[in-house]
Amino acid sequence: MVTGIRPTMQACNRAGYIHIQFVMRPEEDGLCLDAYVESLRPVPSPFLVDGKLSAAAERGRAVFNGKAGCAMCHSPDAKGPKGEMLFTDKQLHDTGLGIGNEKGRRFDTTGLAECWRTAPYLYDGRSRTIEEMLTRDNPQDTHGMTQKLTPEEIKDLAEYVKSL
What is the extent of the structural domain holding 140? Predict the structure, then answer.
């Protein structure tokens, strides 16, 4: 829930039944769905090389943590309940990317683990690729400082993010 409207995953699951499937399900179904979601574990990115970051991704990590300022919100220090890296500060931010009725809306900082498999990007899917999100869809540098990055730095940064 990118707007943080639901306080927990369990609340999201129950709301999905009501607002997507338009049914009231027995609580047992909700508990089963909760257990399934809680059992999911991230899998290693296919962008890793022998389980490690490529040279380009290593350069991208430096851009992520430094020049682009991504780590300010997508913190590499944030850990989930099983110790997995989340890459989120779990906060709501107005990243300047809202359109129409969403203009000025604060969005949940999306975790970046396994984002290599979750295209399209941004709350409305306007970015088909990480590169589009970093360049075309961030013209005012409100979602990281990417406009002054070189094309090579953008490529390396995208490689790093896809390796998470």
Answer: 55-162
CA distance 31 to 33: 5
Q: Looking at the domain assignment, is residue 3 inside a domain?
A: no
pLDDT tens-digit series, residues 61-117: 999 999 999 999 999 888 877 788 889 998 889 988 898 988 999 988 989 999 999
| Predicted confidence (pLDDT) per residue in 52-71, tens digit | 999 999 999 999 999 999 99
Contact (CB, 8 A) for 134 and 163 = no
Of residues 2, 153, 147, the one with CA closest to residue 65: 153
Q: Does 33 reside within a domain? A: yes
Q: Is 30 exposed, middle or buried (0-12, 13-18, 19+ CB in 10 A)?
A: middle
pTM across the whole model:
0.84
